[in-house]
Amino acid sequence: MAKPLTRSKSGVDLAVFGYSAPSATTAAKQNMTDFAVLLGQLADLDIAVTALPSYERVTQMIHKKEIDLAWLSPIPFIALHRNRSIVALASPFRAGKGTYHGAIIVHAKSKISTIADLRNKRAAWVDRHSSAGFVMPRIELLVQGLDPREAFGGQHFCGTHEAVATAVADKRSDFGATWVSLDGKNKVVKGPWSSNPKIAAEIRVLATFGEIPADVLVMRSDLDASTRARLERAVLSIGKTAQGKALVNAVFGADEFKKPDLASYEELREQAAEAAAEGLLEAEEEIEEVQTVFQAVDRTQPVDIGGLDRAIAVVEAPRSSSGRKRR
Q1: Is the pTM of this model over 0.85?
Q2: What sign results for the dihedral spanned by CA atoms 158, 160, 165, 169?
Q3: Domain boundaries of the chain, sorted by first residue
Q4: Which terminal CB of the chain, N or C, has fewer other CB atoms within 10 Å?
């Protein structure tokens, strides 16, 4: 049954948009607020924003219908989409692509020059649900001969891609896993350090891999059909104005929004489940406690993610693990 939105003081429907921003600057929060205001104008809604401490909290709140819209990373999106808690609105596209790449980064002056050199080094990850910041790099490292289950001298969950870059730049970690955008010649043109010249000067990209499907803007699946249609039209058109294009770039690092290719997320789901079954997503040292998607949603409202307690747990893991595809 469709659940109506609340009403704002002006008598207009009010939607609440949640996003993960554990360390967002005042300017970044203002950009997100401006984006939400413009989106609301296009959708004939009032849209309030709430900056939340983690993707886990965003996942929990939209699953429990405490917020109406959310910006989800691929792994939580897969979990809630399978549960039918949410509907995909759009994904950010960069240079015509709805994907990005993963990367292993090191300090600019580091002597690390190959993947093999990462053995016994200190790793910086984003969190257990991050595709580029944990899941895919651990799969790729194994493909390249370095077993993440026993290779490192320490590991740390930083919470955001920006924090991973900072940890590497400050030499608190020897290497980190994060996202990058590549141009047509596979040259890195953007990363989470791009807006900070001081951090950028201390970062070197050791390796890239991918492609990985992009984050997704989603809405509650029980919104009425009219509201859903208005929101979809608004998101898909917001980048067509000068103001909207600037905000889409400032907030999402993208050029425009388009409907996501759901088949690409299915491939990621299969890879994550297979990796979880093999124990590749088990990090022995937990300096910061990070909930799994399974823990992040209320256990009284079951989510079809298979209950892989400490791993990414987006689906029931397969019993065998032959034939993993390389991305």
Answers
A1: no
A2: negative
A3: 6-96+214-260, 100-212
A4: N
CA dist., res. 36 & res. 18, Å (int) = 10
Question: Are 174 and 112 within 8 A, CB to CB?
Answer: yes
Buried b / exposed e along 33-67 (16+ C-beta atoms within 10 A): bbbbebbbebbebbbbbbebebbbbbbbbbbeeeb
User: Cα separation of 165 and 312, whole Å?
Assistant: 22
d(CA 252, CA 195): 12
Q: Give 97's DSSP letter.
A: B
User: Residue 305 — φ and ψ, nearest 5°?
Assistant: -125, 10
- Residue 241 to residue 246: CA distance in whole angstroms: 9
What is the CATH topology of the domain spanning 100-212?
D-Maltodextrin-Binding Protein; domain 2 (3.40.190)
Q: Give me the residues paired with residue 156 across strands.
A: 124
Number of H helices, E strands in the chain: 10, 13
Q: What is the pLDDT of residues 140-183, one digit of tens each?
A: 999 999 999 999 999 988 888 989 999 999 999 999 999 998 98
Kindly report the number of other CB atoms within 10 A of residue 104's CB atom. Answer: 22
Taking alpha carbons only, the member of 90, 71, 75, 61 closest to residue 237 is 90
Between the alpha carbon of residue 301 and those of residues 19, 60, 84, 230, the distances in Å are: 21, 10, 12, 28
CATH topology identical between 6-96+214-260 and 100-212? yes
Q: Tell me the two tokens of residue 292.
A: 């799994």
- Which CATH superfamily is 6-96+214-260 part of? Periplasmic binding protein-like II (3.40.190.10)
CA dist., res. 100 & res. 237, Å (int): 22
